[in-house]
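Thread amino acids onto this structure.
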């Protein structure tokens, strides 16, 4: 009888310890650290729980980008998570998350909205040009204060981030920049569309100038031609709508380039999905 009582006390103590500690976050649970997972709730992951990361797949070195971890499935009352980076630095974007030993976790369970819960966070790329990896795991709970197999969790698919160098901007050497002006797109970052404005000034000798405005990815691949025609001096504005591109464009850094005669100017923009 005394042994059974001791076992019961130990079990209750374990539940209380788990509830108090894991309620405010836990780290070391991702596939980066061996794939332990949220075993305090359930020993095995559940396929019906979907966990994924959204954000740019390329980041300029030594710069910071915002990402989002999302989860659906399970009891879908509240959720917690753990994210680890292989090389880059993780940081909080709001009070819903916290950094523990270089990893990210929840500061308290976050409520589902309809069938989804999400957390925003920041990633800072290292100084080296490389491919980094984000590892994630999240737990969907019924919020009954008792860790059990009624709660369900799963690992997220590893998210790859390409750390790239700053693009080299090439400006015209023969024509003065004031003859053609390329402005920064707005909004930036953007989703689902952005506007790009440029000016052909009255300083241009010819009444008409052949103008090309193109969009490239960070590898130099052409992804869109926004303008390719003869234009008179004046102000122009075009809309870039990535959803109309085939194939669909992923989140990340893109370059837009204005060419007119010997004049070339390039600027960067950031698509966030």
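Threaded sequence (273 positions):
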């Amino acid at each position: 009888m005394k042994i059974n009582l001791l076992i019961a006390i130990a079990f209750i103590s374990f539940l209380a310890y788990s509830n108090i500690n894991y309620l405010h976050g836990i780290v070391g649970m991702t596939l980066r650290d061996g794939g332990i997972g949220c075993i305090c709730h359930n020993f095995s992951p559940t396929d019906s729980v979907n966990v994924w990361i959204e954000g740019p797949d390329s980041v300029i070195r030594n710069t910071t980008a915002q990402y989002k971890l999302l989860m659906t499935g399970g009891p879908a009352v509240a959720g917690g998570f753990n994210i680890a980076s292989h090389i880059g630095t993780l940081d909080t974007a709001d009070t819903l998350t916290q950094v523990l030993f270089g990893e990210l976790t929840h500061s308290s369970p976050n409520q589902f909205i309809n069938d989804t819960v999400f957390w925003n966070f920041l990633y800072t790329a290292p100084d080296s040009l490389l491919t980094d990896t984000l590892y994630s795991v999240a737990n969907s709970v019924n919020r009954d204060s008792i860790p059990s197999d009624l709660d369900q969790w799963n690992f997220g698919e590893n998210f790859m981030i390409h750390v790239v160098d700053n693009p080299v901007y090439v400006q015209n050497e023969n024509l003065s920049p004031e003859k053609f002006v390329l402005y920064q797109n707005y909004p930036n970052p953007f989703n689902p569309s952005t506007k790009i404005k440029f000016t052909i000034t009255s300083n241009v000798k010819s009444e008409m100038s052949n103008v090309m405005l193109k969009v490239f990815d960070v590898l130099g691949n052409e992804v869109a031609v926004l303008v390719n025609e003869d234009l008179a001096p004046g102000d122009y504005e075009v809309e870039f709508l990535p959803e109309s591109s085939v194939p669909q464009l992923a989140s990340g850094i893109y370059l837009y380039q204005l060419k007119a005669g010997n004049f070339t100017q390039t600027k960067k923009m950031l698509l966030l999905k």
